[in-house]
């Protein structure tokens, strides 16, 4: 069983994907981490995010430590958002994701293009969204908790800019697959959002 969870920044897709993986006993991949790891490589090595060629080189020897705080830092988030528009970067990261999705027993993957590009055959596709203001509120709190204080207005501007870049890019733009179930978490806390996601997945599986 493959569950694809897509959606914009800070929509709650990561929390939902992790909880679904736990609930259904499936392995989980946060594909945003791949793009963040490429961005971090590029940043550490002083590469130019405006160069597709240099971004592609940063895809080599990708060692990902999910606990590395720098993966979620502001500069790395910004670079991740811009290098993820390069088709060469997306292609370089594709096989890893397809293999993960195709493993025996299934998997949960979250990202931007799982239901549309990486696993269009997924059994269940969720598109998790929330208003930009709610997402900015969440991200501001999350950054504060990580000891990286941020201003709501800056975070909101950043989220709007990232939404636009992610949706307008030509390579695998952010959009709900035509057969995705849309889950708006604007009015839901994490617990309620997870409960609703489990309900939607079970309902879809029951229909199938
Ligand atoms: O949750 P948040 O949007 O802050 O970050 P993320 O999911 O870790 O993704 C980081 C960046 O990678 C985003 O800005 C996306 O542009 C990009 N990304 C992508 O293009 N495709 C994916 N499957 C996952 C992330």
Q: Provide the structure class.
A: alpha/beta
The largest beta-sheet arranges its strands as 2-3-1-4-5
Shape: globular
Q: How would you state the average pLDDT, rounded?
A: 94
Record field, number of beta strands: 5
**Tally of helical segments:** 9
Portion in strands: 5-15%
- Seen as an oligomer or otherwise, the chain set is single chain
Helix content: 40-55%
Alpha carbon gap, first and last residue: 12 Å
The major β-sheet equals: 5 strands, parallel
Task: Indicate the radius of gyration in whole angstroms.
Answer: 16 Å
Detailed description of the structure:
This protein is α/β, with parallel strands linked by helices. The chain has helices spanning 13-24, 32-44, 52-57, 74-83, 87-102, 114-118, 132-145, 152-168, 190-207; strands spanning 2-6, 28-30, 107-111, 124-129, 181-184. Strands 2-3-1-4-5 form a five-stranded parallel sheet, with helices on both faces. The longest helix is centred in the C-terminal third of the chain and has 18 residues, at 190-207. It is globular and about 50 Å long. Cytidine-5'-diphosphate binds next to helix 2, helix 4 and helix 8.
């Amino acid at each position: 069983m493959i569950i694809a969870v897509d959606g914009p920044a800070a929509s709650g897709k990561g929390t939902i994907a992790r909880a679904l993986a736990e609930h259904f006993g499936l392995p989980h991949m946060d594909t945003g981490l791949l793009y963040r790891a490429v961005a971090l490589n590029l940043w550490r090595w002083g590469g130019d995010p405006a160069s597709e060629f240099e971004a592609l080189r940063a895809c080599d020897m990708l060692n990902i430590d999910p606990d590395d705080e720098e993966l979620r830092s502001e500069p790395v988030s910004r670079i991740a958002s811009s290098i993820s528009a390069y088709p060469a970067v997306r292609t370089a990261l594709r096989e890893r994701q397809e293999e993960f999705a195709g493993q025996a027993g299934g998997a949960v993957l979250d990202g931007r293009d799982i239901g549309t590009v990486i696993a269009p055959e997924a059994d269940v596709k969720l598109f998790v969204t929330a208003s930009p203001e709610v997402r900015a509120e969440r991200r501001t709190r999350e950054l504060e908790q990580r000891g990286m204080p941020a201003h709501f207005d800056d975070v909101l501007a950043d989220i709007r800019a990232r939404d636009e870049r992610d949706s307008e890019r030509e390579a695998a733009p952010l959009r709900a697959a035509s057969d995705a179930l849309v889950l708006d978490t604007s009015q839901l806390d994490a617990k309620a959002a997870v409960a609703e996601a489990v309900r939607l997945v079970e309902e879809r599986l029951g229909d199938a």
